[in-house]
Design a protein that fits this description.
The chain is α+β, with helices and mostly antiparallel strands. 45% of the residues lie in helices and 12% in strands. The protein has four domains: 175 residues, no CATH class; 173 residues, no CATH class; 128 residues, no CATH class; 155 residues, Methyltransferase, Cobalt-precorrin-4 Transmethylase, Domain 2. A hairpin with a 2-residue loop joins strand 16 and strand 17. Helix 11 crosses helix 12 and helix 11 runs parallel beside helix 13. 38% of the residues are buried.
Length: 700
């Protein structure tokens, strides 16, 4: 079919585009190469159409697609056809809107002397009339006058030049008469057949990404999906969260299929897709409110990758779209920060997301296992000063340092407003060089030296300020402006981890300044993440059922038994230590609650087997426990421990409330004396040196 006929068919919507097709994604270079190939009469491939009187949902179709009239649906070639329509008519094809054209090639120019194609460049073209706009060449009102172009040429050359220019212009405009071979899928084919052929053909052209292919399958079953998702993207963008279509497709896949691999959504039905979208839409509304308030993430610009939100979305989809309690929220934030810091998804993205999402859907409290997987990958999650050395903007720790500053209550050095507030223009924060670059380059550092540039631009030489403050400081020496800031806003420097020794603010001490600040940032980072895991949950006044839902924490632990060995199916006195060390750790920390008869996975198993050993007497069980506490920890702690037995799900649960002790508590079991404290949701034994330091810090 001739190109002119194809364009006319598009114009009157005889040739239509299905909704499942992606938007115009060609680069300007691809458009330029297409035109160059056509002018040179090179082959540019065939087109694939599907004739059907029962088409899928069509993009921007103005007629009635369900009136049994035959439509020619474009399955392959829409990028080429769109390019030709744009450049020959100067208009946007009816199946698109201006927002669907991410790269507009209509400022392409053609040189009548050389036959070269280039996009408009003022310096190159403004004094050379042989550069003509391609769109203008095809226009019925074209003002290209060949003989005007040769007016200044010698008379003997004018005719030859005019002929050459006209020949090149004709070669371009004759593109309209070129035939592009087209193939037809028979009308008997189903929508599923059409999509399968579409997939196959596109795998050999401008290949669809896995996300684009997944969305194609979604739209094939739910035609409005692409439009609905893009509308949501625009809504969220107004709240500073700019999610890509790929991210949204991954998130939808996760919610619907409980998997992270794009391909798993191909087989899902329209009802499941629509229900999953409703759930995801609510989750995203919740997250864009929650993340600024609880995680100091005010926009997608605050994180190095949005993939880190996929496991969180998976978790929320299992818990009615919200975190059930503060503990689970804190652990999710802890995981998010750790995954960002250690680039969990920078490589093997699909495999790691698939693994992590699988953990989320299998576990009630998945965060510890996700952290374990991260440790297996990286070896550790604690940050050391060396991790910051030589790191510059763009590194995950750059984003995390900004988040950490906001969490630390950092304020702008110009107006005193918190960085986490819109007063500061929180979405337009600048990264300020504490030792300005021009100042350092004027004092011995070489801008042409790669190692020097890394040092000058290191994270440890960055603070986060508004544009006004950044400009006001300009290239001032730190020893000049830092004292003024500290005088105006006491504590403002420390909130951004600035070493407070003024001698380090001198340029000759810059390496020592960086070293000191790396240590401050690393220490604050580790302390903050540890605090997320160590935050106590509110237990008092809650029923056992409510407590179980909270999951284990710094002040809450579950044990399945006191002394009944489930594996060996017999009494085992050595198991008593597990309960006693938790009680000792609570005494030495901030107190806590221990439930016996509840497994780590929150399953209520009860203490029936323990009671059998006590002649089914709850009183004898509680008396035994009180005796064990007195004998192995000390009688002086008896008043700090309250023991009760309550029924949950028709099973007996022992509830032990422990208050903080005013003196250190040791556990002496089987001749071994140990000192335990709570760290996150575990009881940890300290060695002698650690014990002395802890006691001096808490009771001295």
């Amino acid at each position: 079919m001739k190109i002119s006929e194809l364009i006319y068919s598009i114009k009157i919507q005889d040739l239509v585009l299905p909704e499942f097709q992606r938007e115009y994604v060609w680069t300007r270079d691809q458009a330029k190469k297409l035109m160059s190939s056509l002018v040179k009469d090179y082959p540019v491939g065939s087109l694939l159409f599907w004739k059907t009187n029962n088409p899928p949902e069509l993009k921007n179709y103005r007629g009635n697609s369900a009136n049994n009239s035959v439509h020619q649906v474009i399955l392959d070639g829409q990028q080429r056809l769109t390019t030709l329509y744009l450049l020959i008519t100067g208009e946007i094809p009816p199946y698109y809107t201006i927002n669907d054209i991410s790269t507009d090639p209509r400022n392409l120019y053609y040189h009548l002397g050389t036959g070269d194609f280039q996009y408009y460049q003022a310096v190159l073209m403004q004094n050379d009339p042989l550069w003509v706009e391609v769109v203008n060449c095809f226009s019925s009102t074209s003002n290209i006058k060949i003989f005007n172009l040769v007016a200044n040429a010698p008379d003997e050359e004018k005719l030859d030049l005019a002929s050459a220019y006209l020949e090149r212009l004709t070669a371009l405009t004759n593109i309209r008469n070129k035939e592009l071979p087209d193939l037809q899928i028979p009308s008997a084919a189903s929508i599923e057949d059409a999509i399968d052929i579409f997939d196959l053909v596109n795998s050999q052209g401008t290949k669809l990404t896995d996300a684009e292919l997944a969305l194609t399958h979604v739209v094939g079953k739910w035609p409005q999906a692409r439009r609905v998702i893009k509308e949501k993207i625009e809504v969220l963008k107004k709240r500073e969260f700019d999610f890509s279509l790929s991210f949204m497709t991954r998130a939808l896949t996760t919610v619907v299929s409980h998997r992270a691999l794009y391909e798993t959504i191909h087989v899902e039905t329209k009802p499941k897709l629509m229900a999953g979208w409703d759930k995801l839409s609510n989750i995203l509304d919740y997250l864009v409110t929650l993340l600024p308030a609880s995680a100091y993430v005010n926009s997608t610009a605050d994180v190095s990758t949005t993939n880190v939100l996929i496991p969180i979305i998976a978790y929320l989809s299992q818990h009615n779209g919200k975190f059930p309690n503060e503990l689970n929220l804190n652990r999710a934030i802890h995981f998010m920060y750790s995954a960002l810091t250690w680039s969990r998804y920078s490589g093997q993205t699909d495999q790691r997301l698939e693994s992590d999402v699988s953990v989320v859907f299998k576990e009630n409290n998945p965060w510890d296992k996700l952290i374990d997987a991260l440790i297996d990958q990286r070896g550790r999650i604690k940050v050391t000063p060396n991790d910051l050395e030589g790191r510059t903007a763009g590194h995950p720790l750059y984003y995390m340092t900004y988040i950490l500053a906001k969490a630390n209550g950092a304020i702008d050095w110009f107006n005193g407003a918190p960085l986490n507030s819109k007063q500061t223009g929180a979405y337009n924060i600048h990264s300020h060089h504490i030792f300005p670059t021009s100042y350092l380059y004027a004092h011995g550092y070489d801008a042409d030296n790669h190692l020097h540039r890394k040092i000058v631009n290191e994270i440890a030489n960055r603070a986060y300020l508004t544009a006004d403050t950044n400009l006001a400081i300009s290239n001032m020496a730190p020893e000049e402006y830092l004292p003024e800031i500290e005088t105006k806003y006491p504590g403002a420097l420390a909130k951004q981890f600035i070493p407070m020794q003024p001698e380090l603010w001198k340029v000759e001490r810059f390496p020592e300044f960086l070293e000191a600040r790396r240590l401050l940032i690393a220490t604050k980072y580790n302390d903050y993440l540890q605090s997320l895991m160590s935050k106590s949950v509110k237990v008092k006044g809650k029923s056992i059922s409510e407590i179980i839902e909270l999951g284990e924490s710094n002040n809450l632990e579950f044990k399945s038994t006191l002394q009944w060995d489930i594996v060996q199916n017999r009494k085992n006195k050595s198991l008593r230590k597990s309960v006693l060390k938790t009680i000792a750790a609570f005494l030495n920390s901030e107190g806590g609650t221990l439930l016996i008869g509840v497994e780590d996975n929150l399953h209520v198993c009860g203490i029936e087997n323990d009671l059998i050993l006590m002649e089914n007497s709850p009183d004898k069980f509680m008396n035994l426990l009180a005796t064990l506490i007195s004998d192995y920890i000390g009688v002086e702690y008896a008043d700090l421990v309250k023991i009760d037995i309550e029924q949950v799900q028709e099973k007996d649960i022992c509830r032990i409330e422990v208050d903080r002790s005013l003196i250190p508590a040791y556990l002496t079991f089987e001749g071994q004396k140990e000192f335990f404290i709570r760290m996150a949701n575990t009881s940890r034994s300290l060695d002698l040196e650690e014990t002395v330091k802890y006691i001096n810090a808490h009771w001295a």
